[in-house]
Specification:
With 223 residues, the protein is of the alpha/beta class. It is built from nine helices and nine strands. The strands form two sheets. The protein has a five-stranded parallel sheet with strand order 2-7-1-8-9, sandwiched between helices.
Length: 223
């Protein structure tokens, strides 16, 4: 896939509560788009002070940096957005998105809720997509299955998740990650719609309000 100098790329912000699967969804969407020969999409690799997990690669999964280096980058205004989440710092550098966007390449920013609000204030060209879990019980099970957090950390993440879901109402789109392949296809459908400008029907179909109401109703039935 070659850059598209005839158009400027679109930054797509994908946010979700921890454990919803946003990183996996984003990476599969990019891979599937590449396989189909679609217009280029790049994954924005964030900086973080979080310890590297088993199997993660520096510069691919994240740019893993020390707290001192992260603070230096903040002080030099290197980040479009930065946030403290679960006692670790995360940030998206301006450089990581400006170069591909200028070449006509769309960029997926997989970031936290705090960071998404900063991008909204600074980038009028961004589109915002929220991934929802099918239920809070499913989210809790996914967090346990990852095996990366202690029970008390999982409990904190679930508390944060309930607060983070409230932010979904301010996004352009909401997609429920209940069936993984369908979720990836819906993300790609939204990207293609935004590229073509045919978004009116998509924004009705993937409006956050009804999706949040369905999630709330499902939780009420489960009690």
């Amino acid at each position: 896939m070659k850059p598209r100098p005839d158009r400027r790329g679109i930054p797509f912000v994908v946010a979700a509560a921890s454990g919803t699967g946003k990183t996996t969804v984003c990476r599969h969407a990019i891979g599937r788009n590449r396989e189909r020969g679609g217009s280029p999409i790049e994954f924005s690799v964030s900086h973080t002070t979080r310890p590297r997990r088993s199997g993660e690669v520096d510069g691919v999964d994240y740019h893993f940096v020390s707290l001192e280096e992260f603070q230096r980058l903040v002080a030099t205004d290197a980040f479009l957005e930065s946030a403290l989440y679960n006692e670790n710092h995360y940030g998206t550098s301006w450089r990581s998105i400006e170069e591909p966007l200028a070449d006509g390449i769309d960029v997926l920013l997989e970031i936290e809720i705090q960071g998404a609000s900063q991008v909204r204030a600074r980038r009028g060209d961004a589109r915002f997509l929220f991934l929802l879990p099918p239920s809070m019980a499913a989210l809790a099970e996914r967090l346990r299955a990852r095996g990366t957090d202690a029970p008390e950390q999982i409990a904190r993440r679930l508390q944060w998740a309930n607060r983070e879901l409230e932010a979904a109402a301010g996004f352009d789109y909401a997609v429920v990650n209940d069936d993984f392949d369908r979720c990836v296809e819906q993300v790609l459908e939204i990207i293609e719609g935004e590229r073509s400008g045919g978004v009116e029907g998509l924004r009705r179909r993937f409006a956050p309000g009804p999706a949040l109401e369905a999630l709330t109703a499902a939780e009420a039935r489960a009690r």
